[in-house]
Batch of 4 targets.
Target 1
Amino acid sequence: MSLLRFEHLSKRYGDVVALDDVSFTVSEGEVFGLLGPNGAGKSTLIRILMDIIRADTGRIEVFGEAHNRSHLDRIGYLPEERGLYAKQKVIDVMVYLGRLKGLGRKEARQRSLAWLERFDLGHTVRWRIERLSKGMTQKVQIASVLLLEPELCVLDEPFSGLDPVNVRLVETLIEERRGRGQTTILSTHLMNQVETLCDRVAMVHQGKRVVYGGVDEVRRAHSLPEVGVDTPDALPTLAGVREIAREGEGRWRLHLFPETDPQSVLAELVRAGIRIERFERLLAPMADVFIRVVEGGERVQEAA
Amino acid sequence: MNLRKVRTVAEFELVSTLKRPAYLITTFGMPVFVLLYAGFGLLIAGTMNTAESKPRVYGIVDPSNVLHLEQDTVASSLPVPAELDAALESTGMGEIIDQASDGQARSTFRPFANEDAARAAIADAAIAAYYRIDADYMATGRVDATFAPDASWKENGARGALERMFRERLLADSQEPALAARIARPIAVSESFTFEIDGQEVARTMGGQIAGAVIPIGFAVLLFMALAMSTSYLIQGTAAEKENKVVDVLLAAAGPDEILTGKLLGLGIAGLLQITVWFGMILVAGTLFAATIASFGVELPWLALAVAPLFFAAAYFFVGSLILGTGSLGKNLKEVQQFGMVWSLLSAVPMMFMGVLITDPNGTLGQVLTWIPFSAPVTIVLRLALEPEGVPTWQVAGSLAMMVVSTWIALKLGARLFRVGLLLTGTRPKLRALLRQARLGI
């Protein structure tokens, strides 16, 4: 079931086209990756969703209704360009942001304290923001968003400035949200996180949606026709295989012709009596997909 | 507009401001500073009083013998109206005023046969200075003064007293005593009256005249200061938000109009609290000087006091909206201040024309400034304080209505510019693009 639907959004800044007829949907309970190079239009899209700026054309549907400001209290937002009131105390800022999103003072305070503990920042409650390290500030910002327990959460580059331990913590929190059926939009340049966390992705490039679909579908659609085989036996010449490359002791990469079905290759290997320890379709990593789309400038065939 | 969000922003801004050391110092420190300053001034004056309570003696070398001095002669004091003298004495200020009038009340003139004798007296510190009257004084009118080498910069002798003495002696020699006395003091007794609109004549005291002008001016200045202080908090807050990069988070939680209104309310209340503290301290000081005020027969400008809060609120929201709107276009504190300053300067127009407004509060300038939103609040309050009978009720009501409408427009315009301004990063778009963005949303 779709929780969020962008329909034909367009936005120009003078002569610069920031978004050009972008449409896609985000389903309830999924972690959705919003990808794209710097300046592609991701932040513009998110800012339109948060009603910070307005689209020139198009519409947004969220929670089954036409988008309006009352929905914003149900959407958490961690912007890429972020900061907190440097002179204020941590707890005061968190309570303020919580109250702005509709929480009562007491509830906002209780949740803030709980989330600070979760981020191992319980000792900083009375600290001024300016006393926090960059990583600590980042965690306070993420906690300020998550304490709202929003139905839809938009996290723009949430991992920047975090050490591996805290990256893992944030990943866990995102997975927990998915487990509770809450939706998260994740905008990041870390493609390994996209592969491990996201269910589906959309990629925006030069204002246009160029990639859209499930992560595996996208990877499959942008992969070369290759399979990996592990076997102690030597491989014979195989029909439909353009090239066989040895990648290590007993490890082979088979480059297929585009029209070749990998299943036919597997069947031929079995018929030839090859002892197969591993046979898998090799999918392009998301990083390769990203680079291929951006550097190639190609309008990739969408997966869905 | 979501009033709950407006209240949340207002509370946050108010509490944040109240906790600021700068605010606390200004609110409580300024009156303390003023009291300390006044106390320091009184201390200095007291010291001067003590130092100069010794008779000031000036030598006279008079080869022309115009003054006929044969022994120490105390100069007559300046003529001071009886009612002012009484008022000054009731406050214990008489001595200080004497100081201010060159210490002439205590000037004593001592004759010397020649300059050598006078110089010897200076060397002995017996006199502060001596005056040498030209031998052909009647023809030349020349009188030179010689001061002691350690005379301070403020030592200016007793020229005024000496001139009076010359006048009296010259007249005494050549005119009838009664005529001489009249020429010396042409207006010896005088009372002033004010012809009121209702046909009555009431006594007009000099103290009352002074206080009648000082209180409205002080009131207008206070109103202006309160506006300036309150709007400066707006500027600082906006700059802090831009520099701290909290804009996106804020705008994702509340609309620009909600943020703008909340800020205006919160910081406006902080400004009002500040004024209340200042007024409270003034009242305390006022009770201490109640005798002086009573002796001047001054009535407080109640009508001005009554409408001032309304006009203050309207002026604050009007100017504040514009300051927030345009100030937000700045990239840093300096630019935010520069962009916001324009409106503050426009609000200062009545202060620039204060002289004209005091002379003729209900004249053409006063009438015109009453209908300009930037100048209306201070002008109308000043007019009501100075000449309330010359301000028709419809003008007060009309001016207030104009302020309300202007404020509403300023709020709307300010909110639009605020949204555009808060989101600005990097290169600032040109005016045309800004206006387009403000009109259409960006």
Target 2
Amino acid sequence: MATKGNKAATSLGALLEIRGLSVEYRRHRQVIPAVRRVSLTIRPGETVGVVGESGCGKSTLALAVLRLIQETEGRIREGEIVFAGRSLLTSSEEELRQIRGKEISIIFQDPFSSLNPVLPVGDQVEEVLLEHTGQRNPHRVLEIFAKVQLPDPQRIYHAYPHQLSGGQRQRVMIAMAIITGPQLLIADEPTTALDVTIQREILELLFGLQRELKMAILLISHHVGIIAQYTQRVAVMYAGEIVEEGETDRVLQNPQHPYTRGLLDSLPRLRGEHLRRLPMIPGQPPEPLHLPTGCPFHPRCPVAVARCQTDPPYLAEVQGRQVSCWVAQGGEVRS
Amino acid sequence: MTTYLLRRLLYLIPTLWGITVLSWGLMQLAPGGPLDQMVALNVKVSPEVKVRLTRELGLDQPWYVQYGRWLKRLSRLDFGQSFKDGQPVLRKIATRLPATLLLNSLAIGVILLVAVPLGVYAAVRQGGWFDRLTTIWVFIGYSTPAFWLALLLMILLGLKLGWLPISRLTSLGFPGFPWWGKAWDLLRHLVLPVFVLAFTGLAGLSRYTRASMLEVIRQDYIRTARAKGLRESRVIIRHALRNALIPILTLLGFIVPDLIGGSVIVETIFAYPGMGRLSYEAIMTRDYFVVMGVVVISAFLTVLGNLLADLSYAYADPRIRYR
């Protein structure tokens, strides 16, 4: 599959490796940095989470991996994305097309707007097969519909998106994503638009399928609880940067970056102390056009020191994970 | 669906009735009457004869009485006779309608075949040189008066170069031509009027297609289609265009009457034997019954076009089901 000039090396055992990726959007002749120097590695079969507030760049990261950012909207400014030994940034449009939907699939947040309203859903799923294998195969579609636990696959096959419930639509999206047996599935807020009662079902289905199909999942969510339960490693994003990254248990049980700590503190706890006012992180995330100097988090940071206002921090190992914070990194603060 | 259709058809009755009342009233407000030309051009008709004719034809009655009489005859599908030559109005229309339908369906066909691809391509390459060029070109087409363009083309292609005939639908020896000669002759006569109608009608539809495509291309399901690894041509045609055409169907309902109205000017300039010139002549000579016949039939075709547009809308968009 990999042809001229896009062969690239990944670190040992990595399926997807993102290195120093920066993405910017253009709007009204202004350049808006959305993702800044992000590096992330996913190994085969692994689940990696990306967590952060809306607008922190996590969805942009997902779109950039599939090279789905349209030229009219923005561009990848720098960095490298290597998938299974191929550089996605130097791949031709035709090579990318062979990867999209076949080796890397994506599930979007809103299953209603993500399905074409004028085509039957069975047709939309079958289209993936048609494009990547050259033939129609309705039986395979019905099989996949059964696998994602859609009731009455025959009826759903001919249904239009508006005739399905939100949960059913997301199951159709999952069916569409896994029908080719991809190595990597990107799930961009897969349950955010759904009722709370259905969220769990969809997640259980997704991760059950992961075990069966042995695919890696990049799970993007603003929901720390979901990240904690389903991912092995996590990257915490703030203002387009990764501020803390490491094994999920380690990061969430003993957060080192003040932003990660703030995210965790603002979660309600069901045991122990009742009726406490949830602490919030004061202020708003910075606008990408007016990023503060130094550490982007310093205006909201409870432990910021003088240096945070001037010097941008970088990721360095602290207690077995990567943290981008002068205070957490210790020593430098006093010097 | 059947009840919806029945209801829509019932609604047509008051609409058509309203149109006839308004047209009748407007026509009566215009100075002069059907007899004026006859009298003015004929010295033998004395004022006494005119008064007698006026009474005999019922033209001395108030407008609502005349209208009532006309409506009563219409209810028996009797459209009356022309004041000019005594021919039944329906026959006059029947001889003219095919030519108009031919001209307009050709023009609509050309407009659709050119405007939709133009709009799609401009939208896909938004801001590119093709998009800019069509923007300018479409602006020119939109603001060019049909009669002016028609005259220029007649002078250039018809008189200076002598390539195309400049008037009527057929040449003098037409009845004696073999079938292919007839077809060729018709085609040559149709080129200019179809071109003028299409050129001035293109602009709106191509802009509309472009806007509709731009709107659709930003939708999430287009991103999904790309994420599935579909070819861009498939994304644009199967996923984007199919959705973008839905609002355009409604626009087609408005284009049909537009072309009937527009063809009054074009048909008159090209001396084209269609409904447009018939109504122009009838209005000029105050040939009341002919005018009303044309109004009723045009109005009927127009509302029918709108109904068909609405129905195809429901057919194209599965989210809409009329009750």
Target 3
Amino acid sequence: MAKVTREVVERAGVDVDQLVELLVKNAAAELTTYYYYTILRVNLIGLEGEGIKEIAETARIEDRNHFEALVPRIYELGGELPGSMKDFHDISACPPADLPADPADVKAMLTVLVEAERCAVRGYTHICNLTAGKDHRTYDLALAILNEEIEHESWFSEFLGEGPSGHFMRRGDTSPFVSKFLR
Amino acid sequence: MRELTIEELAQYNGRDRKPAYIAHRGKIYDVSRSFLWQGGRHQAIHDAGTDLTAALEQAPHGPELIEEFPLVGVLVEGKEHG
């Protein structure tokens, strides 16, 4: 634990235990989403599925990166990850991104993906709201993750016919916003 | 439609296998089956068995997500005891 780090956050008016719980729950959401997206990605096949596979893979890798980036902050603030992987799964801030009954139904696949991203967008917006002007490091991290989750949402939303995402997909690199926390 | 006071609502806190109810704008919803309300808590901050009308103003989502849950009652003023 980084003692002074925790103290200054507490003095700024943040309930640090509550914040740590939120960070752990969102770390769980990232790692479990990485797992569920693996299943979704391998099932994105055929003429329609192949077109989505690449962005599902990018979102999958970036969600794993989010998990990696969150863990140090949890421990800096005096928190820890649950010892049980099953417990970790069950406290996730977002529901499991289960494979639809018919994996050939690309719209159903996209709906699972976009709902997972929307849950994440809400979650990191919430953390940003709690930490803005009070816990600069957590805010910076949550904002970086939020930027990537918003892009993920917009990619899947575009494929669902909800309108253009407004930007290109990644060009080889991943985590343009979060990578600074992974060095 | 059931009528519950705020005190009666507090019993439906989702703990010890009790149902998890939340109130919003006078309506009571059953969130017991939601993954996001396990143990009667939501996002480490909100508790079941309470009126979340004010809290929702600060939430990163609107009432539409609450309105998806089964409507089980309405919130009423406390009963007079004499």
Target 4
Amino acid sequence: MVNSYRPTTLPEALKLMETRDMIPFAGGTDLMVKYQSWKGTLPRFPKDVLFLNHIPSLKKIEVNGETLAIGAGATLSDVIDYPRTPDILREAVLSIAAPGIRNIATLAGNICNASPAGDSICALYALDASVILSKSGGERELPLPEFITGPGKTSLGRGELLTEVRIPLKEANLQVFRKVGTRKANALSKLSFSAVAEIKGGTIDGIALAFGAVGPTVVRSKELEKKLTGKTLEEIKVLYKDIIDDYSAMIVPIDDQRSTAVYRKQVALNLLKNFLESGLLKEMQ
Amino acid sequence: MAKISFILNGEEVSVEADPLKRLLDVLREDFEALGVKEGCGEGECGACSVILDGKLVNSCMVPLGAAEGADIVTPEGLRETEKGKVIVESFADTGAVQCGFCTPGMMMAAEALLEKNNNPDESEIREALSGNLCRCTGYDLIVKGVKVSAERGKDLW
């Protein structure tokens, strides 16, 4: 018999996490599908369930200094509605499911589900997001790429809860999110692409490029981004073929029920080319 | 099992059930709210849509325990309101209903949209209905039904 708990404060929730092995349940829109059973019967959760949606402090979204802090109970709709959400994250979140799901599902849940096709995750990589993992008596902050270790796998430790997502609010006058799916609403990504850049005086002051659903985790290379930083329009034109080749070597997708490796790779590179040729160059001219 | 209370169509109610039981099943079995339909059971079709604390949600995705204390409106509650009557009549007059299975969910999505935006354009209507599948109409007449609801109910929303 599986039990469930409905704590109303975070310390209470962390205490429960310390004493039992439980499934944290925020929005639950992935969990309810994963553990669904025959119609009209109870979902089959393998462990006790800890409901997190009765904890008001987790629902907060706020800006502290130059950091956006999104509580683990904030829904995708809350993230869309918050005025200081970075454009690219708003775009990515709007591409997830449909309004009825976005009103329940949480950003933290999208991260913890750690699907290679998680749309918010691709944008959060490009935004240099980190996560706060709390347990009774302490917390730690991990950069998102260190938290997500593989498809469906994270470095969440025993007794820990992901309580907050942090995003540094940096200047970025160019933000692009593209998702390729079978249909516009309620489709899982075949692949996705995120670009965040700050263009100053005709040169690239900072840039981040991330590709989703083309590998076990999001593909991003700080090394290649360093090569692009400080470059002018003319220099990017000269480097163009190298950039495409470098990324081509990194993007190694697989075939699955949603798409093929060949299609994913081709479209990922096309989105990169499109970004370099129209997005970036237009902004720099 | 636990005793869990919430507000259903304006009335305080409580039910003795497993907190993991889907709200969809609680509404249909324990409260005979049969306007809440089960289509896919996995959040894709919107047939089980209800309004929870003012927001459209798929009730197949919400366990009872997560809905404790919530204010829930089902199609049974909506159709008794002035706004609900406008939506029902507008859907009927525009031919937005064929087999009818998706209709209660579509009406909940329409109500959720009009509460936020009482003069939506076509793309806003299509976005608001994007989580509700209809296999009969091809959607055009449902979009029209929402548009007519907005016009007829402009003093209500």
